[in-house]
Amino acid sequence: MPSLAVPRDERIDLRLSADIKALLTRAAAYSGVSVSSFLVASAAEQAKRLVAEQESLMLTTNDWNAFVNALDETDKPRPRLVAAMQRYHARRGD
């Protein structure tokens, strides 16, 4: 994994078992980077994936069709909305 080339002015301190530290050290060595760079890159990749997963909306075909139909409904005349707009313009003197 390539190291991230950005300013590093924040810090996170971790406590972990010797087994996990050894595993991370080996993985970083196989990747050809420092343990810190390996941790940052791995955590950033996982965080991006998780955030995208949580902030994306996946719809079934039926849900998509219902959504599109609801959007199409907005183009239909709304008599109460038209009346409210006319009252507003009348009050403003337009």
UniProtKB/TrEMBL annotation:
PANTHER family, per database record: ABC-TYPE TRANSPORT SYSTEM (PTHR35401:SF2), COPG FAMILY HELIX-TURN-HELIX PROTEIN-RELATED-RELATED (PTHR35401)
Family indicated by similarity: Belongs to the TacA antitoxin family.
Record GO biological process: regulation of DNA-templated transcription
Source organism per UniProt: Thiothrix unzii
Cross-referenced InterPro entries: Ribbon_hlx_hlx (IPR010985), TacA_1-like (IPR014795)
SUPFAM superfamilies named in the record: Ribbon-helix-helix (SSF47598)
Taxonomy, superkingdom: Bacteria
Gene3D superfamilies with a match to the protein in the record: Single helix bin
Alphabetical keyword list: Toxin-antitoxin system
Record-annotated membrane-spanning stretches: none
Record protein name field: DUF1778 domain-containing protein
